[in-house]
Amino acid sequence: MKLQKHRETLRSSGGAPHISDMRIVLLGSRWEGKSSSGNTILGRKEFDTSERTAECVKREGETAGRHVTVVEAPGWVRSLSVVNTPERDKQEIVLSVSLCPPGPHAVLLVINATEPFTETQRRAVQEHLELLGERVWSHTIVLFICGDCLGNTTIEHHIEREGKAVQWVVEKCGNRYHVVENRKSDGGQVTELLEKIEEMVAGNRGHHFDFDAKIMKELMMRKKEDERRA
């Protein structure tokens, strides 16, 4: 309720300006629904949902009165620590934020609302997001998918019912979350998501997420070197 009141106050005060050119990065574990979420945001099939994303994919389109750029990064195995994630996948997760310069307005952490969310998965989420540094949490919104499978259960009740692991993630993201039905073509759910992103950016004093340029340059050079060797 406090968050809803804050949203209404921010909107009524004109404190969340319209972002006409929005940049989004999708993160999450493998087969969690990142590709279908990208398609929902853009309003058409731009991401391949039939295969695992092995490297970052960038797509653009017009939606809800905005030009939106969406970058999908490779996922991690939902029950494994970051030390067990292939180095290439970790590089791609970090490089994802460089594909929408000067940086994404939002990182969307995709979580399937129909799957139990355990403490092991919570640790995996924390470790993989923090490849981007602790500041990433200030720019992250939890995107719950498969909202249609919740029936009459509200997303708030679902979060409460799921327990401490998912509650920790939501709280770490400043209690910012949204739920979508990826089989639903109604754009209202996307418009509300983009408004929440604008509100988050306003709360971050208008700043997008950026990453250390020196580290990013080193990673890009390492990736090119690996590609030449391959």
UniProtKB/TrEMBL annotation:
Molecular function GO terms recorded: GTP binding
InterPro entries: G_AIG1, GIMA/IAN/Toc
UniProt keyword Ion transport present: no
Sequence ranges assigned to domain AIG1-type G in this UniProt record: 19-218
PROSITE patterns: G_AIG1
Keywords from the UniProt entry: GTP-binding, Nucleotide-binding
Domain of life of the source: Eukaryota
Protein name stated in the entry: GTPase IMAP family member 9-like
Organism name: Clupea harengus
